[in-house]
Amino acid sequence: FESVYESFYYKLNLLFPDLTSGEKKLCALLRLNLTSKDIASITFQNPQSVDMARYRLRKKMNLKQEENLVDFLMNLS
Description:
Blueprint: H1 8-15, H2 21-31, H3 36-43, H4 47-60, H5 69-76
């Protein structure tokens, strides 16, 4: 991931330095345009847990309700 999207983590750290490593990993998986169900199977979690993590990530990033999290992350790099 880092070799394909070289500046992604750098820009993510600049904008949101307080993200945990798990939240950064979730951002990377969302950047790959994976669904919550796909992420859940990769990380061995419940899909509802992934949805809750996405919700918390949106709140931490102060995204408005009409802003799409995946689109935001796609435009980040």
